[in-house]
């Protein structure tokens, strides 16, 4: 059997260190998602409103965040904050700020899409039945919106987790950094470690994201 | 803001943008071919290959490009497969993008009623003709919005190429910040160049969508 | 001697354990118009789909002249060229204009000269009153117009036989007539046709022979006179009664 560099992982606490690195990535995504959802819902609802000026400003802001690569946003916050605000956030704080802003922008678009996809006659027929505005929203509109929204928001979590791999580039010690350290430390004893270690990192990311993707797909089918 | 530095940095950014665009375009072209092939395989439910395609799509969609690139660039040479950075960038982008394109084409195929296929066959068309003249044009035009979104997504993803020491826009920005401490100038140029690449694509996409949207035939 | 265009012998079709068609025998002569009636789900549409090999069959044979029609057969596309089929929901290709819809198969499948087919197509369009719609897209047409285009599309292949699968069932009532008129005209031209329909008066007018199918079997057949005015079996009487409204 060729040397795939897998034995490095069994040395000492290496596998535990990798998992701890993955946890850093997961923690950042979960905090960011938790922040994105409420902000996204508020922004998305505002986007369906009537205030044209507010909508225009929001649209420019949201489109900018959505069109910029997340790594560029990370650079802006991580390197630019000192210049702009005289404050140097740590890599982890920068990551949470950027991912929350980005997640909220994505979420607002999903919310807006879900809201405008409810046909007008749903409002009308519910009013025709004599339901009040509040009742219409509570019993008719919100349940339908949620059914469209929940699978998409769950998908946002996997996108977030995948995006956290970028924080390596601003020096946060997460799974990729740990992987680099392990490979570096064992350069002599296992020169092929890069293959095995990066393969395992690849699979760990897959194992973190795949079940969430499956759940999103399942809910999407169920509620279609 | 120091215009002198902006002037000095500009050629470096232009060169880097060239690399970003070149790798992006080639990678996306391969992604489209892979995606179309996968979608057709899934449409015809070809046994075995179909399962391989399904596994590929799940692996590709549930892992970050950065990790895929590290494996290609640092991992593969250790087992005797030598690679260079540009090839890795293209292969990585095609590997990632192929599954996204496959999913968008697949939703296009799914939106076509099976009886359209029967209608074509009842006119004496064979499988290839039915696919070429009836199914594919409809599937592709239905998937245009998702397709354009994928292109923008993939162009954005090229920003991680700097991690395998490709001298793209991100690499250049980071380099210049480190060398000259001209953070503001470097970051502004970075944003401007990405906008120059992505905005036209996005605007062209919106325009193109309106023109060829499935529902828009004949209006 | 009258030649049999279509022959169906001992056809049996099952789907998920249910018998859809059971020992169906049918032959259609050149120039004959056969109308099939029967309750929903009786298998009449399935019969048409079997004739075009859009469905697998369990036993029996279907022949167009001397050629056996079978799902998966090598020359299937060749045989299908000779069978024109018109569907309930038109099934025009939405991404092509009317004329492109019509020209596609004759040009790509039969490899005929585009110019020549075009002339023929325009003539046919004119006859169904749609000459000015040649460059329109299907979604710009009404249901009745779409269905007339679908008929022209089938005709342009110069088929030996035409199959009509409830072609007026999806139409608004005021558009039914324009489609039926086209079919009556085709009958006058001695086209061979098999028509599945719920329009009893039309059946009376167009058919040389009417078949009543129920529960996958041909229960009764005869001239329109015999079957529609003086049905023999109780089932047929019951079925026809549904179409009478008396106070």
CATH topology (level 3) name of chain A: MetI-like fold
Overall mean pLDDT of chain C: 92
Q: Name the biggest interface.
A: A-B, 42 and 41 residues
DSSP helix fraction of chain A: over 70%
Shape of chain C: globular
CATH level 1 class label of chain A: Mainly Alpha
Strand line-up of the largest beta sheet of chain C: 6-7-8-3-9-10
Task: Summarize the structure in words.
The complex is a heterotrimer of chains A (224), B (219) and C (247). Chain A has helices at 14-47, 52-67, 70-85, 91-116, 120-128, 133-163, 175-185, 193-222. Chain A is mainly α and 224 residues long. Chain A has a single domain (6-223), classed as MetI-like fold (Orthogonal Bundle). The mean pLDDT of chain A is 88. By secondary structure, chain B is mainly alpha-helical. Chain B has one domain: Orthogonal Bundle (MetI-like fold), CATH 1.10.3720. In chain C, helix 3 packs across helix 4 (114-127), helix 3 (98-108) packs parallel to helix 5 and helix 5 (143-155) packs parallel to helix 6 (173-188). Chain C is α/β, with parallel strands linked by helices and 247 residues long. The model of chain C has no long low-confidence stretch (mean pLDDT 92). Chain C starts with a strand and ends in a 6-residue tail after the last helix. Classes of the chains: A mainly alpha (224), B mainly alpha (219), C alpha/beta (247). At the A-B interface, helix 3, helix 6, helix 7 and helix 8 of A face helix 2, helix 3, helix 7, helix 8 and helix 9 of B.
Summarize this entry quickly.
The complex is a heterotrimer of chains A (224), B (219) and C (247). Chain A is 77% helix and 0% strand.
Question: What keywords describe this structure?
Answer:
heterotrimer; B: 219 residues; mainly alpha; MetI-like fold; 9 helices; C: 247 residues; alpha/beta; six-stranded mixed sheet; four-stranded antiparallel sheet; 10 strands; 36% helix; 25% strand
Layout: helices, strands, pairs:
The complex is a heterotrimer of chains A (224), B (219) and C (247).
Chain A: H1 14-47, H2 52-67, H3 70-85, H4 91-116, H5 120-128, H6 133-163, H7 175-185, H8 193-222
Helix pairs in contact in A: 1-4, 1-6, 1-7, 1-8, 2-4, 3-4, 4-6, 5-6, 6-8, 7-8
Chain B: H1 3-43, H2 49-61, H3 65-75, H4 85-110, H5 114-122, H6 127-142, H7 144-157, H8 169-180, H9 183-212
Helix pairs in contact in B: 1-4, 1-8, 1-9, 2-4, 3-4, 4-6, 4-7, 5-6, 7-9, 8-9
Chain C: E1 4-15, E2 18-29, E3 33-37, H1 44-51, E4 59-64, E5 67-68, H2 76-81, E6 83-86, H3 98-108, H4 114-127, H5 143-155, E7 161-165, H6 173-188, E8 193-196, H7 200-206, E9 209-214, E10 217-222, H8 224-229, H9 234-241
Parallel strand pairs in C: 3-8, 3-9, 6-7, 7-8
Antiparallel strand pairs in C: 1-2, 1-4, 4-5, 9-10
